[in-house]
Amino acid sequence: MRKFNYALLFAAAIATSSIAGAADVTVGGQSMLPTKDIVDNAVNSADHTTLVAAVKAAGLVDTLKSKGPFTVFAPTNAAFSKLPAGTVDTLVKPENKATLTKILTYHVVPGKHDFMSLSAQIKKQGGPIELATASGGKLWFTMNGPHNISVKDESGNVASISTYDVYQSNGVINVIDTVLMPK
């Protein structure tokens, strides 16, 4: 009986440490919980208030709460601030919903693409890989050092992924430092 209790205690300690490890990923000062969906986690990030407002303005909340899986390349508030003055204010107006939706869905790639899968594909290809976005556009991924991946958009902008593999119940978020723009 005593042996069983130690084994049970050991198993509980491992399970607790796995759960705690999953909750240790923070974005925008908040824990990102793998049991929550993309939207529920994003709304807690202080670094993604502009993205969340844009997702709401585009009417994409229900889509990003659906089953997925989705990979979202999530620009920070600082990334949005790199855009020309007034761009965000113009895009969130109701009359620009279609353009905003195209830009936001350009940041979404169907499927679950984490660092390991992206880097493995890049290494196998021997160079950049191309992935199709939910908007029908294309993004190119290249290794930028042994532990970094850069994302290039159709307009020639290059974003660095600053936080990888923020797992969600319906996909994964990779935080980027530049807003990606389709043609």
Structural class: alpha+beta
Task: Kindly provide the name of the CATH class.
Answer: Mainly Beta
Q: Architecture, according to CATH?
A: Roll
Q: What is the CA–CA distance across the termini?
A: 67 Å
Output the CATH topology: FAS1 domain
Order of strands across the main sheet: 4-3-9-8-7-6-5
Number of DSSP helical runs = 8
Structural Rg: 18 Å
Q: How does the major sheet shape up?
A: 7 strands, mixed
Could you give the count of β-strands?
9
Give a verbal description of the structure.
This protein is of the alpha+beta class. It has one domain: FAS1 domain (Roll). The protein is 39% helix and 24% strand. It has a seven-stranded mixed β-sheet. Strands 1-2 form a two-stranded antiparallel sheet. A hairpin with a 5-residue loop joins strand 5 (129-132) and strand 6 (138-143). Helix 3 (49-58) crosses helix 7 (97-105). The termini are far apart. Mean pLDDT is 85; it is low at 1-23.
Layout of strands and helices, then pairs:
Elements: H1 2-23, E1 26-27, E2 30-31, H2 38-42, H3 49-58, H4 61-65, E3 70-75, H5 77-81, H6 87-91, H7 97-105, E4 108-110, H8 115-125, E5 129-132, E6 138-143, E7 149-152, E8 158-168, E9 171-176
Parallel strand pairs: 3-9
Antiparallel strand pairs: 1-2, 3-4, 5-6, 6-7, 7-8, 8-9
Helix pairs in contact: 3-7
